[in-house]
User: What shape does this take?
Amino acid sequence: MRKHIWTAALLSMILSFGNIASVQAEIIPAYGEGERGYQAVVLCESLTVRQERSARSKAVKTLHYGDTLAVQDSWDGWARCFTSDNVDAGQTGWVNSDYIVVNPAWYQTDGATPVYAWNDTMAPKVALLRKGTVLPILKDEGEWLIVSLRGASGWIHKNEADRLAAETAETIRHIANLDRAELTTPKGAYTLSDLASLRWIEENFSMAQPVGSAGCPFDAALTLYSTDGRTIVFQMATDSCRHFRTEDGNCFAYGNGDEALRLYGSTSSIGETFWRLFGLTNTYEEIYGS
Assistant: This one.
């Protein structure tokens, strides 16, 4: 019987308090089952891997705080594990399930983030996370996330920016059934109704991935019209980037960048293909005029 343990590790924190600016963060989905099992993270300072599920069993290896392992099953408070992410290395054994978190989603901060004693922004702050902190999530409670501070629970509030970013990402993932697309540049306006071209946009934009920031000029507007009457507007990068910006200010990269790198050694071909759909090239003269 496989058991998921709702415990998490705080990977980085500052025990100081004060006024906290509104921050954005990214919630990274759980990785799911890998070749050796589910990824797990060690929460305690040291954790003994044993041959059998008993505290008296012979020790196989000692893991330390933050180490990762692959959990294959659990039974009576013990998890059967493989002690390495590398399928060609590591050992099999058992660990106490109370000191690991299995298959967590991850929270990555984009600024100083307070952790509260309970789910209220007026509650005492028990920690302040540094920018760039990545930690596993115990549980998602709507507007709040529960995390563990090495044995003590804490609460992180999802601010409005986080909620809007999540809704935007969900809207992008469901781009489909387009009826037409309109592109407006400083030089002119262009309409696209060719089904094959619209399918390309559906496929490559629905797989778009968020990017932290983009220093591109966003001087073109792309409006997508679906057959059910919905309309989505993106600001398109007008240089060689394959980026677009949403109305709430978040930036995304469209297309399969990994595949483009493998085939062509560059992702620029994705952006070039997009502009060609409208009969353009992404050059200054084509987009801005002479």
